[in-house]
Structure formats: C-alpha cells, structure tokens
Amino acid sequence: MADALEQHSPSILEANIRDLAIATELQASGEISASTFERLKLNDHKLSEMAESIRSVAALGDPIGRVLERTQLDDELILEKVSCPLGVLAVIFEARPDAVTQIASLAIKSGNAVIMKPGKEVEHTAGALVEVLRCALRQSNIADDAIGLIVGREAVQHLLTLTDLVDLVIPRGSRQLVEHIQANTRIPVLGHAEGICHVYVDAAADPEMALAIIDDAKTDYPAVCNAAETALVHESIAPDFLPLLVERLRAKQVQLRGCERTRAILGSDSVETVNDWHTEYSDLILAIRVVSDVGEAIDHIHRYGSSHTETIVTNDDNIASRFLKEVDSAGVFHNASTRFADGYRYGFGAEVGISTSKLHARGPVGLEGLTTYKYVLRGKGHVAGDYRKGRAFKHKRLL
Asked: Does domain 197-340 fall into CATH 3.40.50.880?
C-alpha cells in the first residue's frame, strides 16, 4: 500500500487539485475555514509522509491471534483469551487526505474491513487514494473490498441502519457530526465530540517551560483536537506570568479571552470576556482563567472539558500526582504539551481517531482499539455436569 501510494502520486495529486479548486470557491463564500483549506492540500512531501505512516503500521506486531490470558480450568481443560478483529468498521471523517491512509492501514493490519465516508471537500482525493490502496490489495491477493468508500448524506444515513453488518462507527469531525451519528444509529459509536484541552500552570511552574508548552499546545496546529483551548493559571503567579504569556502569544497573532480576574490583570481593553468555557475554537484563540489552586483547576476541567487531554505544568511532584490521579480525561500529562495526544506520537503507527469514551478504547485509537477478544476452550470431552456433582475446578493461571 505504501509503495503504491508513491508510484501513483501523480494521479493522487491531480485529484487533490480538483478538490482544491472546489475548496477555493467554498472558502471564498465562507463555507470552509482557512485551516480546513490548509488540511486539504497534498504535495510530494505530504504523500511521502503518508507512505511512511503506512510503513510504520506495517512494522508493528500482529495484533490478531495473541493469547492475552491462559487458564487451566482442570486437567486437559485449557481456556484462552485470544485477540480477534472487530469486523466491519465505518469511519466518517473530515477533510483530511491523510486520514484515508491512516484508517485503511490500521484496518487492514488489524484484520478488519472498513467503509470510509470522507468530507465532501476531499472526495476526489479520497477516491483516488482508495483506488490506489485497493489495487495494492489485489496485487497482494487480498480482497479489495476490504476497503470501501461512500459519498453523500443519503449513503451515510443508510450505512447507519446496517446494524447486522457494521460492527463499529468511528466519527471524526465536529461536535454536531458526532452527536448526529450517535442519535441516528444503534451501532456502537467510538469517538469524541470535542477537543477542549486545558493547560494548568501551577504556582510551582517554571515560567519559561509553561510559556513554551502553552505556545506549542495552542499555535503548533490550532485546528486539531489536541490543541489547547484554555489556560488555567494559579493566582499567585498570574500577575507576573500573564503579561509574559500575552507578549509571547500576541507575537503569534493569538486572540486572548479571559475571566474577570484575567482582564483585571491585563486590562479589559486588551482581552475580551470569555462567553462560553465550553467552546472549541480550533483557531488562534485562547481562553484564560485565573484559579486559586489545583483543586479549582481540576473542577474547571471536569465542568467544562471534553475528557480529551489536559496537562499540568509544575515542579511540585505532589501537586502533579494529584492532578494526574484526579483528572478524568483520556490523556493527562505533566510538563508536556497536549499536542502529544496522537497515535503516531504514542508509537501506534497511526490512529483512526481519538476516543473520549470509557468503554473499549480510550485516547488515540490504534491497532489494539480495533480488536476485541474471544474465549477459546480446549478440552477432552469435559462436561459441565461433572462439576455440579462434586468435581473441582483448578483455575490455575498459566499466562
């Protein structure tokens, strides 16, 4: 699949040009943002990165058929818990060409079939990519319909009714998209509705470290779900720290919005009032709140966060330990940017999305998140009735 991607790059780039032409008109009319337009763009370097991502997935161990547990129930009666594919995945995602290759490679590696529905802005590119990937499957004697593509809202609505055929739906996109899918299917849904990530700067934080982490978490790629949307700053350092933060972020054209205490420190003319702490800006906008202590920071995160990724900046290990234990999110970090919440950075090769669910998979969903397990029992004519008549189980853990 990776080789085919590189070999057919001209046809893929040609399809991407068609999408960009349409997207230019959509951007001019305000239907898509500048950040969405940027995500659409492909070039030789980006295609090379996509191919390397596929190779990194290929290099991972086989997640299927692994014996997770082995128990001797009795003499010659052995129970194994064995990993297996989920089955058929339906992945509905936004205008990102690289999502096609990430999703397809992870699905194939984990023994699943996948049906993909791309955003309308990337349909030509996605179609070209899927055709190339399917060709690679045929050349490898793998059924090419293991990778499928659908377009249009009607097709999605029909797909969501196929409870007997589709095993898991994974939406990647806006809150509205995820909530619509959750409300319109009885198929299990894995995903996150929003990425409202926080950086808490504690009283014991290194100021320069905190500035660098907030800068990276907000400006490295503001349109993605692991970008920070809110900075929480301890009241004891806020008067000194906030002016430094403003100076750094204003140089990156970041708009700042704050609570009343923040605006009192920085001046109400220079910082807008926060209208809603629930907002995922996905842009160069950062909300700031001054808090009294780590407890208030944790309370804010639980009230307004989306259970995605939160980080604390502090040199106090006890405060850090409390934050890491008490914050209930898929990712909780200490002295690191929220931008590390990513399947590739975690060593998963790629990801099909990030889950904020507490069931099945949580955080970046890689190969393991696309598998389930079954129990395999091997005996020698054993019957359950014997154990009701007095025969005892051994229940000896072997693995």
From this structure: no
